[in-house]
Structures are given as structure tokens and as C-alpha cells.
């Protein structure tokens, strides 16, 4: 799309009621999709218990959503043009609602993963198309309102998820964390039907499709996540399953590269990564995505497993990060116009790193109140970093490639989240074992102090077997606490490591509206 075409097709005057209905539908849909990324985090221990999943298997309930979302986001623009915006969104909303119902009635891990993958596939399409509605249905002078609403959903959705899921799990049942999407889905279908005009499908795009690239994305991104997630449990290449998954991942990468060479319009224009600024933005987006989704997963797990919090209590702690994010969002357009992007991104990354570092002194006695300061700081940091990196991505490429840049940026952010959840599983398995062995090595059976302690515990607890069980439980809790500390150290170092990349960013164009609204 050229700049001239964009300018000619952009609405003039004030948007009508139907346009605002469409914007409301797009924003609600994007919020629902981002909310459901993390809505299971607080209630995950309860869900795992009811469907018979272990702690490490339970990460798949969150990871499967992100994997499917990563696959659909880069091709959402093509699917939108193929079927027409209204048809595409209505099909995706209906599918999202149906798969939500499947999750709600799941009785096994397999059913849950199928439902979550379906949710992710349909929900991932709602995020980039929400921005398309704002860009095509609102005139330039009203688009800042749309971008502020959209930005608020993208940032606050993942932090609202745990508190909504926690409240529903504690007051009703975890099933309602998925059933809640039924009335919202019906509302969205009504808004889309009346707010968006029908557009003729462009079925000729099927002949022009980069099928190699689409197959490559599916195999590569899906296989990579499965490889990282399951590799530790299956002893890596000692497992035939992992060998097969790795081979599929390599095949997917080869197909994706062939698509870059053969296809006239690749589904992912990876050549954009050769631009110094855009490549730096993608690397930063991956790490920020790891911090954003990783902390939203780790904190509820810590509070539930160590501090004894219920789902709602842990969700409220995560929710704190959404408060400064929501308050900052109306000022984002002004900040984009007024302050050097490098200053803002470095400041955001510094606050994000500091928020993770503040959580590296956790103990088994830590309560949710300790997280308040870091969560508020994280909300500011992730808003400044993510929103400005989004602008940097779009301003890095020619206007005709803005859709590709937006798709790559969103895929990078969600890839970071997927890598974080897979990495958490690996770190948890490895470091718990290591910390348990180290703690056990400090306890000598020949020590008089240890013998006196165990004798006292036997008297207090009603026998030596019970005393040994209590000691083993104490060691396990301490090892798990130290493992969570390790995770926050990894995130801290990762964010600090990418901060110099912000110096590669070029100043944004001083326009009246954010860069993405000009496309």
C-alpha cells in the first residue's frame, strides 16, 4: 500500500456511530484476546489438579495459547484481505468463543490444550485487526483516542487476566474463566455485524499465497516451543519424540527461508530484520515479552506455592502493574511527539530491569505486599518500552511494509512470552534439583545440632517419620524459593543486556499522530 493510497482511503470529518461501534468491537476483542493469555495463571494449580496435570505439564495450558497466537499473527493481515474484514473477525470471534467453551468443559490436559490452542489461534487474529479498524474507520484527528484505547488493552490485558481468573476461580469455579467469553463473544458479534460494512473477499489471493512460508511458520515456531518445553522432561535428544520435533523445527525453518526466496510476497518479510533499527527492535521485543509474560506467570505461582495465597489474592498482586499502565496510556501520543525515543525506551527498560531485580531477594516468608513496589514500577517500564518499540518498528520500514513490521513485532513479543514459559519449565526442573542437593549437603546427620533439632521435631510432630517429612518439605520450599529467585535474576540480566540496543533507534517523525496510525 502506498502512502498516497493510504491518504486517499482514510476517513475525513468525524467518525459516525457505526465506526465507533467497530472500534469498540475491535478494542474489546483485542482486550479479550490479551486477557485470556494470562487468565489461567492464578487458577493454574486448581486447574492442574482437576484435569490431572503435573506442575511442568501445566505450563502448556499457558504456552499452547501463545504458540497458536504466534502462528496466526503474521498471517492475519493476509487472511483479513482474503475473506474481508467483517467476515474474518466474525469467524474468529465465533471460533474464540467456541474454543473457550471447550476449555471450560475440559476434563483432561489434552482437551484443555486443544481448547487453548484454538483460543490462541482465533484470539491472535483479533489483536492486529483491531488496529486495522482504527486506521481505516477513524479520521486522523480522532485516531489518538483509538490508539490510547488499543494500547490500554494490549498492556493491561495480561495483568487483568490473573485477577479476573482468580476471582472467578475463588467465587464461582475456574470453568467460568472461560465461560465468561460466551456473553462477550455474542456482544462482539453484534457490534461487528452493525459496525463494519461487508467487504468482498479477495479469493484470488489464494493463488498468490506463500504456502511454503505459512507451513514453515507453523512447523518452526510450534516445533521450537515444543522442543524447549518438552526437551528437559524427555532428556533432550535421548527421546525419539524430541528428535522428531527438532527435525520438524529445522524443516520449518528451511521452508520459511525458501518462501523468502521463492514467494513474491512472503508471509513474513524477514529481510526487514536486516535493517539495523528494526532488527534491534525485534530483539528488544522478544526480551520485553519474556519479562512481561514471564513475571505474570511466575508471581502467581510463587504466591500460591510459597505464600499460601489463593487465586484471587495472587491475581490482585499481578493486577497492580496495570494501574500505572492504564494511567500512562492517554499520554502516549504526546510522549511520542515530545521526547526522544531512545531516552524513553532506555528509561522503560531500566525500570523493567529494576522491577525484576527487586524480586531477587525473595524468601519463603515473602508475602504479596513485597511485590507492590516492583509491580507498579513494572507497569510503567513495560508501557514505556513496549509502546515506543512498537512505534520504532513501524517507523523503521517503508510504509508499504507496515503490516509486515506490525506482524513481526507482535510475533516477536509473543515469541518472548512463549520462550519465557518454556524456559520457566526448564529452569524449574534443573534448579529445584540443584538447590535441593545443595541444601541437603549442608545438613550433616552426625551434627549434634541436627540430631537435637530432629529429636525436638519428632516430639512436637508425633514421631520421627513425620519429622523427616517436615524437613523434606522445608527443603523443598526453600529450593523452590531459590529457583524463583534464579528466574528473576535471569530476567534482570536479560533486560539489562538489551539496553544498549536502544541507542540504535532513530528519532520518530514529529507528526500529529503516532506512526502506526499513519498506515
From TrEMBL:
<keyword id="KW-0472">Membrane</keyword>
<keyword id="KW-0813">Transport</keyword>
<feature type="transmembrane region" description="Helical">
    <location>
        <begin position="343"/>
        <end position="360"/>
    </location>
</feature>
<feature type="transmembrane region" description="Helical">
    <location>
        <begin position="91"/>
        <end position="114"/>
    </location>
</feature>
<dbReference type="Pfam" id="PF07690">
    <property type="entry name" value="MFS_1"/>
</dbReference>
<keyword id="KW-0812">Transmembrane</keyword>
<keyword id="KW-1003">Cell membrane</keyword>
<feature type="transmembrane region" description="Helical">
    <location>
        <begin position="487"/>
        <end position="505"/>
    </location>
</feature>
<feature type="transmembrane region" description="Helical">
    <location>
        <begin position="60"/>
        <end position="79"/>
    </location>
</feature>
<feature type="transmembrane region" description="Helical">
    <location>
        <begin position="174"/>
        <end position="199"/>
    </location>
</feature>
<feature type="transmembrane region" description="Helical">
    <location>
        <begin position="145"/>
        <end position="168"/>
    </location>
</feature>
<feature type="transmembrane region" description="Helical">
    <location>
        <begin position="211"/>
        <end position="228"/>
    </location>
</feature>
<dbReference type="InterPro" id="IPR020846">
    <property type="entry name" value="MFS_dom"/>
</dbReference>
<keyword id="KW-1133">Transmembrane helix</keyword>
<feature type="transmembrane region" description="Helical">
    <location>
        <begin position="20"/>
        <end position="40"/>
    </location>
</feature>
<dbReference type="InterPro" id="IPR011701">
    <property type="entry name" value="MFS"/>
</dbReference>
<feature type="transmembrane region" description="Helical">
    <location>
        <begin position="278"/>
        <end position="303"/>
    </location>
</feature>
<feature type="transmembrane region" description="Helical">
    <location>
        <begin position="240"/>
        <end position="258"/>
    </location>
</feature>
<dbReference type="InterPro" id="IPR036259">
    <property type="entry name" value="MFS_trans_sf"/>
</dbReference>
<comment type="similarity">
    <text>Belongs to the major facilitator superfamily. EmrB family.</text>
</comment>
<feature type="transmembrane region" description="Helical">
    <location>
        <begin position="315"/>
        <end position="336"/>
    </location>
</feature>
<dbReference type="InterPro" id="IPR004638">
    <property type="entry name" value="EmrB-like"/>
</dbReference>
<feature type="domain" description="Major facilitator superfamily (MFS) profile">
    <location>
        <begin position="22"/>
        <end position="510"/>
    </location>
</feature>
<protein>
    <submittedName>
        <fullName>MDR family MFS transporter</fullName>
    </submittedName>
</protein>
Amino acid at each position: 500500500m502506498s502512502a498516497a493510497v493510504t491518504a486517499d482511503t482514510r476517513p475525513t470529518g468525524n467518525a459516525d456511530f457505526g465506526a465507533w461501534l467497530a472500534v469498540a468491537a475491535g478494542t474489546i476483542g483485542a482486550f479479550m484476546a490479551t486477557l485470556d493469555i494470562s487468565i489461567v495463571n492464578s487458577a493454574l494449580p486448581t486447574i492442574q489438579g482437576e484435569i490431572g496435570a503435573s506442575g511442568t505439564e501445566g505450563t502448556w495450558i499457558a504456552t499452547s495459547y501463545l504458540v497458536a497466537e504466534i502462528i496466526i499473527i503474521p498471517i492475519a493481515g493476509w487472511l483479513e484481505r482474503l475473506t474481508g474484514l467483517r467476515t474474518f473477525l466474525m469467524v474468529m470471534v465465533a471460533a474464540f468463543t467456541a474454543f473457550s467453551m471447550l476449555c471450560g468443559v475440559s476434563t483432561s490436559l489434552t482437551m484443555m490444550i486443544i481448547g487453548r490452542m484454538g483460543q490462541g489461534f482465533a484470539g491472535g487474529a483479533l489483536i492486529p485487526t483491531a488496529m486495522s479498524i482504527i486506521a481505516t474507520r477513524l479520521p486522523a484527528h480522532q485516531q489518538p483516542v483509538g490508539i490510547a484505547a488499543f494500547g490500554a488493552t494490549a498492556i493491561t490485558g495480561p495483568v487483568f487476566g490473573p485477577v479476573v481468573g482468580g476471582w472467578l476461580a475463588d467465587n464461582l469455579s475456574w470453568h467460568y474463566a472461560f465461560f465468561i467469553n460466551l456473553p462477550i463473544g455474542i456482544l462482539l458479534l453484534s457490534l461487528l455485524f452493525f459496525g463494519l460494512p461487508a467487504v468482498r473477499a479477495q479469493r484470488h489471493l489464494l493463488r498468490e499465497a506463500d504456502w511454503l512460508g505459512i507451513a514453515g511458520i507453523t512447523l518452526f515456531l510450534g516445533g521450537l516451543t515444543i522442543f524447549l518445553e518438552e526437551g528437559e522432561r524427555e532428556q533432550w535428544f535421548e527421546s525419539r519424540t524430541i528428535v522428531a520435533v527438532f527435525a520438524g523445527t529445522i524443516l520449518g525453518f528451511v521452508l520459511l527461508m525458501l518462501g523468502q526466496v521463492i514467494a513474491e510476497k512472503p508471509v513474513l518479510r524477514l529481510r526487514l530484520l536486516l535493517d539495523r533499527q528494526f532488527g534491534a527492535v525485534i530483539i528488544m521485543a522478544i526480551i520485553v515479552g519474556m519479562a512481561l509474560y514471564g513475571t505474570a506467570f511466575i508471581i502467581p505461582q510463587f504466591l500460591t506455592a510459597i505464600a499460601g495465597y489463593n487465586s484471587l489474592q495472587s491475581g490482585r498482586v499481578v493486577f497492580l502493574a496495570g494501574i500505572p499502565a492504564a494511567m500512562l496510556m492517554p499520554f502516549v501520543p504526546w510522549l511520542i511527539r515530545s521526547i526522544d525515543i531512545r531516552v524513553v525506551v532506555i528509561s522503560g527498560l531500566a525500570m523493567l530491569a529494576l522491577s525484576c531485580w527487586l524480586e531477587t531477594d525473595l524468601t519463603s516468608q515473602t508475602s504479596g505486599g513485597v511485590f507492590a513496589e516492583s509491580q507498579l514500577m513494572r507497569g510503567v517500564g513495560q508501557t514505556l518500552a513496549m509502546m515506543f518499540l512498537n512505534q520504532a518498528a513501524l517507523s523503521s520500514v517503508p510504509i508499504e511494509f507496515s503490516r509486515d513490521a506490525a506482524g513481526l513485532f507482535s510475533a516477536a513479543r509473543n515469541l518472548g512470552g512463549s520462550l519465557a514459559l518454556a524456559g520457566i519449565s526448564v529452569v524449574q526442573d534443573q534448579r529445584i534439583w540443584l538447590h535441593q542437593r545443595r541444601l541437603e549437603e549442608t545438613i550433616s546427620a552426625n551434627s549434634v545440632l541436627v540430631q537435637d533439632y530432629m529429636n525436638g521435631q519428632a516430639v512436637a510432630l508425633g514421631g520421627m517419620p513425620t519429622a523427616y517429612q517436615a524437613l523434606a518439605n522445608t527443603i523443598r520450599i526453600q529450593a523452590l524459593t531459590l529457583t524463583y529467585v534464579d528466574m528473576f535474576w535471569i530476567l534482570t540480566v536479560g533486560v539489562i543486556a538489551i539496553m544498549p540496543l536502544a541507542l540504535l533507534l532513530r528519532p520518530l517523525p514529529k507528526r500529529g499522530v503516532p506512526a502506526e496510525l499513519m498506515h
